[in-house]
Amino acid sequence: MAASKFRRPGWSRRAQYSLFFSFVALAAGLALGLILLAISVVAPRTFDGLRGAATDATRPAAEALAAIGSTVNGVFTGAGNYWDAASQNAELKEQRDRLRRQALAAAALERENEQLKAALELRERVVETIAAGRIIGSSHDSVRRFAVLSAGRASGVRNGMPVRSPDGLLGRIVATGAFSSRVLLISDRSAIVPARILRTGEPVIARGMGDGNVDLRPLEVGRNPFEPGDIIVTSGTGGLYPPRLPVARVVRLDDDGAVAVPLATPAQSSIALVEAPYEPVALADYDAPLEEAEATLPPDALQ
Amino acid sequence: MARRARPRPRPAGFAQGPRPFAEIVPAASIALASLLVAILPIVSTKGWWPDAGFIMLLGWRMHRSDPFPNWWAIPLGLLNDLLAMHPIGLSVVTFCFALLAIDIVDARKLGRSWVTEWLLAALLILVAEFLQWWVAAIQGAAMPLGALWPPVAITVFAFPIVSELVAWLDRYRLRKTGV
Fold first, then answer.
1. Distance CA A138, CA A84 (A)
2. Helix A48-83 and helix B25-38: axis angle, to 10°?
3. pLDDT in tens, A89-143
4. CA angle B172, B178, B179 (to 5 degrees)
5. A93, A122, A198, A298: most buried, per Cβ within 10 A?
6. Residue A204's pLDDT is what?
7. Choosing among B39, B46, B112, B132, which should be mutated to test the A contact, i.e. which has the most A CBs within 10 A?
8. Cβ–Cβ of B92/A32 closer than 8 Å?
């Protein structure tokens, strides 16, 4: 431990006062910090401008580092791909042929679906992509799971908009800067996504676990509807996320739910698309994630 | 008119005393630590990285009693909050609390040894991580308490490394060799 500052600093009044002031400054700082913390807990929107400015300021450095990181990563995976190229090639060809047959079947089904919908006069809502960016960073030393996206208000990004990657749902915007924004990932504890099991269509609730995984609960209590390998997609309930967007894959069952891994891993410099809310009214109020998520449940879930 | 004698160039290695920027090195290194962890080019899925700004602050305060005026903890904490995406005010509280606690322990004179330093640092890290966990729980992101231990352990074991770095920086800024 360093030498104490609290030995009497001689007869100088000035030295004594400055020692006392340093003590007062810490107490005042503690009080100020508590007030700021209380404000950011009670009214999380208050410091949005400040938080947006912070991600804007670190964006150039973060983007440059992200580019370097993805290059290094690419070199290693590239070298890995050459390792077993011949047998990989044969496997991939076989897989390609299988997928082509499946794609043909899917195209035929889609065509038929269109015709049926036209016959029923159902109107399909088209989801508009607002902006495209890259994930350039994340929270590293907290229990919250945030990511930083390299697109902001200048490209039309607003608070609450859903963010997806080509693989599936990533999360939603919680703070915007001019050229960058903060994304609440679906693996965060406070992120709740109304979803359904793709295999059976049964409605479930997906909630982040904070460690990169997602916790699934069925809305119907009593039996466990999940099977390992099940794909979970958004249900579209609540109107924020578009329906049938892939969310996660079940890896493990527990007593009445399951643990799933998100399909869209927010890896460094992966492309992320910001979309307009599926129903424009869904962005009315975004201050209370928990209550909002409860409101998105179908009425029978709350009984 | 007599010309003033031009100072002769000194031989290399003759310059002594603190470097001109010695005053700001502690605060700058704390801010830089916050920044470097914030812009790491990865997406961490568990959030187990140490709170680099906080342990840098602890390292400096353990190493010297006056690395910077105490009130600098407020802007440094605010900067750490903004960069590390904590709720605004969290690091202001933990930074000020840590400095206050160390001041009080200093006055009581526990004695000088790396064990007491490390113990005190570990205690402060535990308090800071717990506060962070608690604020997250209030904000609707309640983790099980067991999830607190890995980041606490990692940060506690990162502290000696950071304090070694601080000692090196201190020698560099004051141009002391062999201390």
1. 34
2. 60
3. 888 999 999 999 999 999 999 888 888 888 887 766 677 888 999 888 888 888 8
4. 75
5. A198
6. 92
7. B39
8. yes
Q: How far is CA B103 from the centre of its chain?
A: 15
A235, A194 Cβ separation under 8 angstroms: yes
pLDDT of residue B13: 66
**Extents of the domains making up chain A:** 88-124, 129-278+291-296
Q: Which of B43, B106, B135 to mutate to test the interface with A (most CBs of A within 10 A)?
A: B43
Whether the CB-CB separation of B154 and B54 falls below 8 Å is answered with: no
Q: What angle do CA A127, A179, A159 make, to 5 degrees?
A: 50
Tens of pLDDT along A206-222? 999 888 899 999 988 77
Q: Does residue B27 have a pLDDT over 90?
A: yes
On whether the CB atoms of residues B120 and B87 are closer than 8 A, the answer is no
Could you give the C-alpha distances from A298 to A186, A204, A207, A236, in angstroms and in order?
A: 20, 11, 16, 11
Please give, rounded to a whole number of angstroms, the shortest distance from the CA of B30 to a CA of chain A.
15
A4 vs B107: CB contact, 8 Å cut-off?
yes
DSSP state of A179: S
Interior/surface letters B63-87, b for 16+ CB within 10 angstroms, e for the rest: bbeebbebbbbbebbbbbbbbbbbb
Partner B contacted by A58 (CB < 8 A): yes
Option in B73, B106, B116 nearest A6 (CB):
B106
pLDDT at B93 over 50: yes
Summarised one tens digit per residue, pLDDT across range A44-69 is 888 888 888 888 888 888 888 888 88
Question: Number of A:B CB contacts under 8 A?
Answer: 206
Contact B92 A36 (CB under 8 A): yes
3-state secondary structure of A206: strand
Rounded to the nearest angstrom, the gap between the alpha carbon of residue A275 and the centroid of all alpha carbons in its chain is 13
Cα–Cα dist A222/A146, whole Å? 34
CA dist., res. A44 & res. A251, Å (int): 34
CB-nearest partner of B39 from A22, A65, A187: A65
Q: What is the CATH number of domain A129-278+291-296?
A: 2.40.10.340
State the pTM of this model: 0.82
Q: How far apart are CA A56 and CA A45, in angstroms?
A: 17
How far is B166 from B59, CA to CA, in rounded Å? 6
Closest to A26 (Cβ–Cβ): which among B65, B70, B78? B70
> How large is the ipTM?
0.84
A144 touches chain B (CB under 8 A): yes
The residue type found at B41 is: P
Q: Which of B44, B45, B142 has the CB atom closest to A189's CB atom?
A: B142
